[in-house]
Specification:
By secondary structure, the chain is an alpha/beta fold. It has 15 helices and 16 strands. This is Heme chaperone HemW.
Length: 394
Amino acid sequence: MNPGAAGPGAAPVPGPDPAIPLALYLHFPWCVQKCPYCDFNSHALRGETPEDAYVEALVRDLEHELQDGERRPLASIFMGGGTPSLFSGRAIGRVLEEVGRRLSFAPGIEITLEANPGTADASHFRGYRAAGVNRLSIGAQSLDAAQLKKLGRIHDPGQAVDALRLARAAGFDNINLDLMFALPQQTQTEALADLDGVLALQPEHVSWYQLTLEPNTEFAARPPPLPDDDAVAAMFDAGQQRLADAGYAQYEVSAYARPGRRARHNLNYWEFGDYLGIGAGAHGKRSGPAGVVRRARHKHPRRYQETAGTPAAVQEQRRLSAQEMPVEFMLNVLRLNAGVAASLWEQRTGLPLSALDLPLAEARRRGLMEADPALLRPTALGHRHLNRLLELFL
């Protein structure tokens, strides 16, 4: 590791606008068991959840991260994993209390916690709501019992439905449900039945995304039989129409929301905002006079807890070069259906828009980007061939 590295032969990027919004991501690395498709930093829990020790490590880590005197208010907080709902409301409350002692919260801050239906109960949800969590993201993934078994999930369809009911009873009025499609041997009829079941629960937000085989997962090593490309495309088109008819507007590749319910934390990522990454394996991005710096913590929970609060907790750190910035920026903003104002490039990177002249001209010539010079937005063709579009900015 070379924490000060900017990349071989790379010039540092000028300082971006200090008004870039700031979010906080907190990672909770344990699950009851590892799902065969999951490439996130998650570890099967052995024994009791080490709540107090891990919360103390998060606090030490945050304090060290803030040694430079960060003063921006937090626009959002997201607690992901792993399975944060393995932690009690008391533990989550302490985390948020300690964060609030060190950073101010913007008015109307969005505070999200990921919950697994297999670890959900009424007392936990009431505790989270009392602690200040105001948005839940529930990982249903499917409402088909056979598919849940294939996916290695520990819950059944009834528990997924009950989790949303319990969340409502605890006072949550902003809920996301995660749902996958293109599952092993899944037909279009089955995929749409799954989606209809989720829509009947009337969440405020749906994350509807295709199952993909990620490297270093069990599914990658032993691939299950998945629908072919034509079947997947048909599922996607039919599902998009179902979501639109139910009042959910697509605003990102796999994100659909009712009016006013877009995920503000995720929007900050996609708009190239800043975020602190605290916890085992957490990634962060911060902008300052020296440019844009990305950091990642140690992935293994034990190693992370041993080093939290010291420089050794950071396993990787790099400052983005001017050459890297176009693809880093576009990798996020081009996921958004509406795109972003072209002025956001200079505000978030500190670089002139002219740095994008050549790739933008080529993208527009190929019909992959809208021609409006005030907007950075893919065309419908660009959305369908997003990887090809991103290659132009490498």
